[in-house]
Design brief:
Layout (H helix, E strand, L loop, with lengths): L1 E4 L8 H13 L4 E3 L2 E6 L2 E8 L5 E8 L5 H19 L3 H11 L3
Antiparallel strand pairs: 1-5, 2-3, 3-4, 4-5
Length: about 100
């Protein structure tokens, strides 16, 4: 499971935003169970997204489809990065920088 910080201002209505942006970025209506949104798309057998501590982080769990073609993997990764950008408010570069400053647990 990966935890991503959410930029101030993006935390308002985070639970609702998670589902809306999944549909927008992946074109799939997510299923919901106990506050977790789940989809299957492309190279992802399962993408599970939920709110973290006090709605200030995004918790993401994935299961990859290792049989996916390179083209499908690239499309899935592009959509996943766009999704994280839009939900967290941080670009990929900013997320990497934040992860390095925090370090491993």
């Amino acid at each position: 499971m990966q935890e991503y910080p959410v930029k101030r201002g993006y935390t308002k209505n985070l639970q609702e935003t998670i589902g809306v942006k999944l549909k927008e970025c992946f074109g799939v209506v997510p299923g919901m169970d106990a506050g977790h949104f789940r989809i299957t798309y492309g190279a992802l057998k399962m993408l599970d997204v939920s709110c973290g501590k006090e709605g200030k982080t995004l918790l993401v769990s994935t299961v990859s489809d290792t049989s996916a073609t390179d083209e499908v993997i690239l499309d899935t990764n592009r959509r996943f990065r766009r999704y994280l950008d839009e939900v967290t408010g941080y670009s990929t570069k900013e997320r990497v920088k934040k992860a390095k400053s925090v370090g491993p647990d």
